[in-house]
Design a protein that fits this description.
Layout: H1 3-31, E1 34-40, H2 45-62, E2 67-73, H3 75-83, E3 89-91, H4 94-104, E4 107-116, E5 119-121, E6 123-124, E7 126-131, E8 147-150, H5 156-168, E9 179-182, H6 188-195, E10 201-205, H7 208-214, E11 223-226, E12 243-244, E13 247-250, H8 256-267, H9 274-278, E14 281-285, H10 291-300, H11 306-309, H12 313-442, H13 447-476, E15 482-485, H14 486-496, H15 498-504, E16 506-512, E17 518-521, H16 523-543, E18 549-557, E19 562-569, H17 576-579, H18 597-607, E20 612-616, E21 622-629
Parallel strand pairs: 1-2, 1-3, 8-9, 8-10, 16-18
Antiparallel strand pairs: 3-13, 4-5, 4-13, 4-14, 6-12, 7-10, 7-11, 15-17, 18-19, 19-21, 20-21
The chain binds adenosine-5'-diphosphate.
Length: 631
């Protein structure tokens, strides 16, 4: 064989190999594209895989350029997988299909033909039932005010089908029942609960009762179906309309061509094939009308028509009235508590405010008190002193009143005495005058006797004048105003006491300034004052143990236009307890004294507008000093 011939044969072989590869390679590539079939695993993942894996295998065989894989999913997982475009096909229950169809545009390719108790069905329903011997329940409407049990609110065959029928006869299962209980799968428990009288009624998917009876679990004769419907093509007990069985659907992204091939394959599935048997089915039929399912959802205003219920406050109230009532009650309670707390807080704040205000006032008062304490104490002391002074004045006034009263009494006495003395004095004067005339007539030259009789007459006249002045003073209550020489007046007073001065050998020293000798006053009364002071001085000096006994009389004018007469002596002086009572009427330290001399003298001096006081002069001698206005 030539090289050329061998080369041509190699080229032909290579061309054939390339041809085979070109035709086989795309198919090989396509076989690796695995289609995801999402399956609702309502009885768990394993059950779903066992039930549907033969179908996936069947499809993979029939559609050799694709692989098919079962993806078991829960309801939520199914929704999220479809939403995220993770699935190519969907195999789910009737209700869920309608929801996903509405939300994500999946579309059915075929409807499952279920084989149950030896018969094939493409539809199913639900049965509402009670015990045969239940006396009150005979129709669906009778369930009102009774208890009922179902699978769950979202179970299509396990509750929603019955719910629709109940609404149609005017019974709202959420509002009109005594109690509605959802217990989930298995549905057998619902049947037992009804038969064992734990609830009045129940609802399960059609065929359940017959299966349980066939398994010997219940006596189907003890069951009473409420609202039983007759259907020639559907032999199982049911109370509801019939709805199509599970659909096999394609996702929106899946091509029509592949979908068509899958639909054909499903429709061609043999009833007795492994795939059909595993799915408890007799194969698949052309897709049924799922419109009644939409109607049910729309009527019940649930997904995908839940929005229909939104505007209806009534439906919200009907569905959630328990929670709403509870929430309202809690809100009310909360508001009441808040109101009470607010009120209590307000009261506490008010009390606190009042307390603070009072504390503030107390503090201010204390501060004010402290601030004015000294001032108040000073005022109290002042007031106390004033009170003491006014007490003293009151006592003094009382003493003066008593003094005046005694003077009045004395005045009355003196009037009587003066009247009585006037007679004997006049008689003495007459006798002395008569004696003088008798001496002259007899020519007796006894001059000493003559002088004595003259003196008797003078003294009697003087005594009569004194008594006369005293009577007038008492009678009028006022003194005479006459000009007289004060020095002469004092000399007369000294003369009057001459015998007593001589008796004690007392020297009287008189100092008088010239300018004050004439004054206007009642001469007799002023002479009386001087006599009183001289009598006391003589008594004092006479009683004293003094070698040289002296009485001084100083007459001076004062700066205030008055004349002052001071009578001093060198007697023993006056003790303090005597000084404070000197001018009190009837105060005397002498056994035969009357205690009226100084009291009367003060009355006379003060009646003339002058003053009288006791003092100790520069030579420490006791001195009585009185003043008189000159005019
Ligand atoms: P009487 O002379 O009747 O006692 P007075 O009123 O004249 O009343 O005098 C009251 C008292 O004052 C006297 O009793 C005497 O104790 C006292 N007294 C007055 N003058 C003097 C004086 N010059 N020296 C001492 N005591 C005097």
């Amino acid at each position: 064989m030539s090289y050329c011939c061998r080369g041509r044969r190699f080229s032909v072989c290579l061309g054939l190999v390339c041809l085979v590869l070109v035709s086989v390679w795309p198919a090989a590539l396509k076989a690796q594209a695995e289609m995801q079939i999402g399956v609702l695993a309502f009885r768990g993942k394993q059950d779903a895989l066992e039930r549907w894996s033969p179908t996936a295998k069947y499809l993979s065989q029939r559609i050799d350029d694709h692989g098919f894989k079962i993806v078991p999913l829960t309801l939520e997982g199914m929704r999220s997988h479809v939403e995220q475009d993770k699935l190519d096909f969907v195999l789910t229950n009737t209700g869920n299909y309608v929801v996903l169809e509405d939300a994500f545009g999946i579309s059915r390719l075929a409807t499952l033909k279920v084989r149950h108790l030896g018969q094939d069905f493409t539809q199913f329903g639900a049965v509402i039932f009670t015990r045969r011997d239940h006396p009150a329940l005979n129709r669906i409407a009778d369930i009102a005010d009774h208890t009922m049990m179902a699978v769950s609110r979202n179970a299509f065959g396990g509750f929603q089908m019955a719910w629709r029928e109940m609404i149609e006869v005017g019974v709202d299962p959420f509002a009109d029942l005594e109690r509605l209980r959802f217990i989930g799968f298995p549905q057998d428990e619902i049947v037992y609960s009804v038969l064992e009288r734990r609830v009045d009624a129940g609802t399960v998917r059609s065929g359940t009762l017959e299966r349980m009876a066939a398994e010997g679990l219940i006596d189907i004769g003890s069951i009473k179906v409420l609202g039983a419907k007759d259907s020639d093509a559907f032999p199982f007990l049911h109370s509801t309309r019939l709805y199509p069985e599970w659909p096999f659907a394609k996702a929106r992204k899946t091509s029509e061509e592949l979908a068509q091939r899958v639909a054909i394959a499903l429709l061609q599935l043999e009833p007795d094939s492994t795939a059909a048997a595993s799915a408890f089915a007799a194969g698949w039929t052309i897709p049924l009308d799922y419109g009644p399912v939409h109607e049910l959802f729309r009527q019940l205003e649930i997904a995908p028509y839940v929005y229909l219920g939104k505007p209806s406050l009534t439906s919200v109230w009907r569905e959630y009235k328990g929670w709403i009532s509870f929430s309202l009650a809690m809100m009310l309670l909360l508001m009441m508590m808040l109101a009470l707390i607010g009120r209590a807080n307000r009261r506490i704040s008010q009390s606190e405010l009042k307390f603070r205000e009072e504390a503030n006032q107390r503090r201010q008062a204390q501060e004010l008190l402290a601030k004015h304490k000294d001032e108040l104490e000073a005022r109290v002391a002042e007031r106390t002193a004033e009170l003491a002074e006014s007490n003293r004045l009151a006592q003094e006034n009382q003493a003066q009143l008593a003094h005046i009263s005694r003077l009045n009494t004395m005045g009355e006495m003196a009037t009587g005495i003066a009247h009585e003395l006037n007679q004997p004095l006049t008689a003495i004067l007459n006798y002395s005058n008569g004696s003088l005339r008798l001496l002259q007539k007899r020519g007796n030259g006894d001059s000493e006797l003559h002088e004595a009789i003259v003196n008797i007459g003078n003294d009697a006249r003087r005594a009569a004048d004194i008594i006369k002045g005293l009577r007038e003073f008492i009678k009028r209550g006022e003194h005479k105003h006459e000009h007289f020489n004060l020095r002469n007046c004092i000399d007369s007073a000294v003369d009057l006491l001459h015998p007593r001065l001589d008796q004690y050998d007392i020297e009287v020293r008189i100092n008088c300034t010239d300018d004050v000798t004439d004054i206007v006053a009642d001469r007799v009364q002023i002479e009386q004052v001087v006599v009183n002071l001289l009598v006391n001085a003589v008594d004092a000096v006479g009683a004293a143990d003094q070698p040289a006994k002296e009485i001084g009389i100083d007459i001076v004018s004062t700066d205030s236009g008055a004349v002052a007469v001071a009578v001093s002596d060198n007697g023993a002086g006056l003790p303090a307890n005597v000084i404070e009572h000197l001018f009190d009427p009837f105060f005397t330290t002498k056994s035969e004294g009357m205690g009226m001399g100084l009291s009367i003298s003060r009355s006379i001096v003060e009646a003339h507008g002058g003053t009288i006081e006791y003092l100790v002069d520069e030579a420490q001698r006791p001195t009585f000093r009185f003043t008189l206005p000159i005019t």
